[in-house]
Write a structure and sequence with these properties.
Helices cover 20% and strands 30% of the residues. With 197 residues, the protein is α/β, with parallel strands linked by helices. α1 runs parallel beside α2 and α3 crosses α4. 26% of the residues are buried.
Amino acid sequence: MPEYAAEILKDAAASPYVDGSGFHLYRGEIGALSRVHDAFPEKRLYFTEQMVIERPGQNNIEIDNPVAQIVIGATRNWSRNVLLWNLAADADNNPHTDDGGCTMCQGAVTIEGDKVTRNLAYYTIAHAAKHVRPGSVRIGSAELSGLPNVAFLTPDGRKAAILANQTPANQDICFLASGKYVAVSLPSRAVVTCVWP
């Protein structure tokens, strides 16, 4: 809902005290962030929450959509960060508040005593967390139909690209990295993070 952010940012009395706007993605489109950026380019954007859970009875982790919508989508639309719902919870998705807290939201990991289970949110954010370290800057990358992607220049001078294959077929992708063409074979519904010097 970019209208709320725009209302505050265009208010002459409030705007000088506002660093930027935070967004969740429970309805609407991730492209709404770009509309706020285009109208207020001097203000920062932050992606501050999204629940990512596995569907009941799901046998495999379908990671392409949450990575494409959240990690790739938010950063391609000017967000300076990506945060998910919760880092850790128990098997009952606790702790959460009793007035409005999410009773069905898994943490990135579920902790039961000494047992730790990695959930869909863990794998979603891991594609960025390991290689797109604080201080990384988004750089240009081609928009490809069915293959959402985003690329970054990291503080140590490396480049990292995250690609999601949202097509029903395996995709062979060739991209230019440090003056050389690199081929990547990406199965349907899969995600890959490529890093090069």
